[in-house]
Amino acid sequence: LKLYIIGEPVEVIGAEELADSLNRAEFYPDDLQAESFFAAAGFLEEDIIAEIQDEMTQLFPSEPAPVFNDMNGLPPETIIAYSYLNVDIEFEYPFYAGNNEFGFRDSNGTVTEVTSFCTRPDSDSENMAREQVDVLYYRQGDQTSETEFAVDLCTYTNPYQVVLACVPLQENLGETVDFVERKISEFTQDPNYEQMRKLRPAVTGGRFGEQPGDSLIVPDVLYKLTHHFTELQGKALGNQPWLDQGYFIQKALQMIDFTLGRTGVILKSDAIIVIPPLGGAPQLRHFHFNRPFLIYIKKRDPAASPFFVMWVDNAELMKEFVFEAQ
Length: 326
Description:
alpha+beta; Alpha-1-antitrypsin, domain 1; 2 domains; five-stranded antiparallel β-sheet; three-stranded antiparallel β-sheet; 15 strands; 15% helix
């Protein structure tokens, strides 16, 4: 919307803080492969919906073309903005499915037994599922719950990397990512980095007898969300000339489908914004008194009463038009 239609940061009257936050969440196309996403915006009168559906069919033939409901009755000047993301990351070697329940403790301390995938702590260095994991950061805490770590689940995935990190949540997700990236960079400076970056395999025999290897257990994540940006809906665009033309956000929603499992990651997301002009686009007005009308004359004073009032409903009171040849 900002790039294709407005041409500047989008202003929304009555939702300035959220609009500012969304504007600052800058998206750089270079961060994604071109074949992973699609975005377009335009006007109904320019057949933007057909254009979006045609492009989506060509770029993502295995996915159904997007359906735009509730478009009937919208004026042709309505703005439609649409974006789609589709990323499928397959691990080189599938992890093992967890045979037992895995206790996940949320921030409130509630523990829920969930399914998971894992490496086997008794597997040796030849186990490829274990070998593909890269430890990006590790700091031992005084308690298990205080230990911080981050891993790359599969070093073979390209061009995308799947990073999981157990760290304290910062002020927001952006700052949390920055925190993890700093810790990853610092971890590479550890003199034992090369030994610590891989999951240690099980050891048999030796000084301490049989020793299990490092373990990795990750809960299966199945996340589906449809989010309506109710804070934006019904609000007017603050940018000109859209403000003067009465454009307002009728619909703003995002749908996310995310799966993390033993074989990889699948992420699909699409977003739709519908912005019609209030009551349609401004129409050329015609002040043609071609039917009965009222005339009254009064002082230019709101409190004054008319001293002449007339209802004109008879063409006999008018002057007949006579065509005169030039």
